[in-house]
Write a structure and sequence with these properties.
alpha/beta; Rossmann fold; 2 domains; six-stranded mixed beta sheet; 12 helices; 13 strands; about 35% helix; globular; D-isomer_DH_CS; 2-hydroxyacid dehydrogenase; EC 1.1.1.28; D-lactate dehydrogenase (NAD+) activity; D-LDH-like
C-alpha cells in the first residue's frame, strides 16, 4: 500500500521514508492539501497531513470520493480538520497526542530572549560592522514574573526554564498542574496574570473558547513593557488588536512563531511575491517584533517522535487497533 504524505518539508522527507520502510510505501509531496490538491489523493486509502493542510468539508468530500479512509495528521493540533464531517464520511482520523514538549518550550524562551536582548537588531548591525549599543538594552529576567497561560506538558517545561532563571511564576489553566505548583507557581485569574507578568507565554490549544484569548482588552491590561510570546496557535491572539497596541509603542517585545492567517503562507517561499496580508506585512515592520514560521516543534527529537507516532497510528488502523491518538475511530 502507498501512503500519500502532504506538506512534507525537505528535512522531514528522509525521516518519513525511513520510518515507513518495511511497513508501507510512502510518497512525500511538498504541496499542502487543499481543495486544489485533494484530487491527487485519489486511490490512496491513507493520507498523511500537516497542521497547515486544509481538511474542511469540501476537501474531505473529495478525499472520500477518491477512496481515502484514513487521515494521519502529523501534529498535536487538529483545528484544521472538520471532525464532524470526517465522522459522517466514516473516515478515521488520528493525530500525534504527544511529542517532546522541550522543543516548543525552549523555542518560546528563544523568542523571549531574542526580543528582550534585541538579538536580531544586534546581528543585523554587526553584519554591517556597526558595533554601537544604542537601542540594544534589555532587562534581567531574574526576579521578574513569568505568566504561563496553559500549564500542560509544554507550559510546564516553559515554567521550569523560568524557574531556572529565578522568576516568579503565575499560571492560568482549567486545572492546576502539581509539578508547576511544586515549582512555586501561583494559579490566578487570567486578568491578574496579564496585569502582573513581565513575560506572558501562550501554551493552550486553539478551541472555540480560546480563540482570541488575547483580545484587545487583554492586551490593554498587560504591562506596557511586557514581553508576549505565542508558540501555540495563531488564533489565540487578535492580531489586528496587537498591531494597534504596537503602533501605540507598547511592549518590550513580541515573539510569534504562529499567526492566525498563516495557512497559505507559512512553510512556503513567498519571497518573490507581494504579500497581500496587510496585517502580517505591518506586523513584521515593528523593530520589537520577531516572527518565525511555525518552527518551534522543529527539532530532530520532536519531529522523530511525531513521525514514529504517525507510523504507529497507521499500523494501528490497519490492524484494527485504537489508541489515544484517534480522534475519529474506524467505523
Amino acid at each position: 500500500m502507498e501512503i500519500l504524505a502532504f506538506g512534507v518539508q525537505a528535512d522531514e522527507r528522509p525521516l518519513i521514508e525511513n520510518a515507513f520502510r518495511g511497513h508501507h510505501e510512502v510518497r512525500c509531496l511538498d504541496v499542502f492539501l487543499n481543495a486544489d490538491t485533494a484530487p491527487i489523493a485519489a486511490g490512496h486509502e491513507i493520507i498523511c497531513t500537516s497542521v497547515n493542510c486544509d481538511l474542511g468539508h469540501q476537501v474531505l468530500q473529495t478525499l472520500a470520493a477518491g477512496g481515502t479512509q484514513m487521515v494521519a495528521q502529523r501534529s498535536t493540533g487538529f483545528n484544521n480538520i472538520d471532525l464532524g464531517v470526517a465522522e459522517r464520511l466514516a473516515m478515521t482520523v488520528a493525530r500525534v497526542s504527544y511529542y517532546s514538549p522541550y522543543s516548543v518550550a525552549e523555542f518560546a524562551w528563544t523568542l523571549a530572549m531574542a526580543v528582550n536582548r534585541r538579538i536580531v537588531r544586534a546581528s543585523t548591525r554587526t553584519r554591517d560592522f556597526d558595533f554601537r549599543l544604542d537601542g540594544l538594552m534589555g532587562r534581567d529576567l531574574h526576579g521578574r514574573t513569568a505568566g504561563v497561560l496553559g500549564t500542560g506538558k509544554i507550559g510546564e517545561a516553559f515554567a521550569r526554564i523560568a524557574h531556572g532563571f529565578g522568576m516568579r511564576l503565575l499560571g492560568w489553566d482549567i486545572a492546576e498542574n502539581p509539578a508547576c505548583v511544586e515549582l512555586g507557581m501561583e494559579y490566578v485569574a487570567k486578568e491578574r496574570l496579564l496585569a502582573e507578568s513581565d513575560v506572558v507565554s501562550l501554551h493552550v490549544p486553539l478551541l472555540p473558547r480560546t480563540e482570541h484569548l488575547i483580545d484587545a482588552a487583554a492586551l490593554k491590561s498587560m504591562k506596557d513593557d511586557a514581553i508576549l510570546v505565542n508558540s501555540s496557535r495563531g488564533g489565540l491572539i487578535d492580531t489586528a488588536a496587537l498591531v494597534t497596541e504596537l503602533r501605540a509603542g507598547r511592549f518590550t517585545g513580541v515573539g510569534l512563531d504562529v499567526y492566525e492567517a498563516e495557512a497559505g503562507l507559512f512553510f512556503l517561499d513567498k519571497s518573490l511575491q507581494a504579500i497581500e496580508d496587510d496585517t502580517l506585512a505591518r506586523l513584521v515592520t515593528f523593530p520589537n517584533v520577531l516572527v518565525t514560521s511555525h518552527q518551534a516543534y522543529y527539532t530532530v527529537d520532536a519531529v522523530g517522535q511525531i513521525i514514529d507516532t504517525t507510523v504507529a497510528n497507521v499500523l494501528d488502523y490497519r490492524a484494527g487497533r485504537r489508541s489515544e491518538n484517534v480522534l475519529v475511530p474506524r467505523s
